[in-house]
Amino acid sequence: GESVGLHLPTLSVQEGDNSIINCAYSNSASDYFIWYKQESGKGPQFIIDIRSNMDKRQGQRVTVLLNKTVKHLSLQIAATQPGDSAVYFCAEKEGNQFYFGTGTSLTVIP
Amino acid sequence: SQTIHQWPATLVQPVGSPLSLECTVEGTSNPNLYWYRQAAGRGLQLLFYSVGIGQISSEVPQNLSASRPQDRQFILSSKKLLLSDSGFYLCAWRNGLNTEAFFGQGTRLTVV
């Protein structure tokens, strides 16, 4: 479901460290999940997706984990770089709709 | 390749004035189309989605309306803007059952 009224939580990490961003979703019927990255003043960009029949998917420097039991999604970024600084959103698909989580603002400290 | 165009990029409008934001998609047919609003420092709120020409679903009651006069055109409108309509408006499209949505670059609307 949506948490659009909440202020963004923040996460600061040192350059080179790994980042973990978490997201809770509300609808157990959601069958598809996406992580997006949004830089200031721009539209969200796709990072990685995962279907509900999977619990892990890896991309380049990113891994998404899905725990359907507790309705939790996480994004792991390996060797975080300054260019990774952005707001990260998870999204769940319910039928034709996409609903976004609150988002997390990631700041990478050089 | 598919592209999505959203305009204008920024807009300042007085309270009570009308609004028309346009979004067009190229390189695909019969996409699902979406309008989202994002307040500063907040998440994305789904406003409208459309699965076909003339088919609009509204997620929240509000001062806005949407129309889809053509397959790849999605318009967000208001007859009289309110201060609370200020925000960052994003259009998105997608095709297929389990595929990601692709976003436009957004329109920053300021109602004064």
Task: List the SSEs and their pairings.
The complex is a heterodimer of chains A (110) and B (112).
Chain A lengths: L9 E5 L4 E6 L7 E7 L6 E7 L4 E3 L3 E6 L4 E6 L8 E9 L2 E4 L3 E6 L1
Parallel strand pairs in A: 1-10
Antiparallel strand pairs in A: 2-7, 3-4, 3-8, 5-6, 6-7, 8-9, 8-10
Chain B lengths: L2 E5 L2 E4 L5 E8 L5 E7 L5 E9 L2 E4 L6 E6 L2 E6 L8 E8 L7 E2 L3 E5 L1
Parallel strand pairs in B: 2-11
Antiparallel strand pairs in B: 1-3, 3-8, 4-5, 4-9, 5-6, 7-8, 9-10, 9-11
Description:
The complex is a heterodimer of chains A (110) and B (112). Chain A is 0% helix and 54% strand. By secondary structure, chain A is an all-beta fold. In chain A, strand 6 and strand 7 form a beta hairpin. Helices cover 0% and strands 57% of the residues of chain B. In chain B, the strands form 2 sheets. In chain B, strands 2, 4, 5, 6, 9, 10 and 11 form a 7-stranded mixed β-sheet that branches. In chain B, strands 1-3-8-7 form a 4-stranded antiparallel β-sheet, with no helix packed on it. In chain B, a hairpin with a 2-residue loop joins strand 5 (44-52) and strand 6. Classes of the chains: A mainly beta (110), B mainly beta (112).
Q: Helix coverage percent of residues of chain A?
A: under 10%
Largest sheet of chain B: 7 strands, mixed
The N- to C-terminal Cα distance of chain B equals 38 Å
> SSE order of chain B in H/E notation?
EEEEEEEEEEE
Strand proportion of chain B, as a percent range, falls in over 45%
The chain-level structural class of chain A is: mainly beta
Largest sheet of chain A: 6 strands, mixed
Name the overall outline of chain B: globular
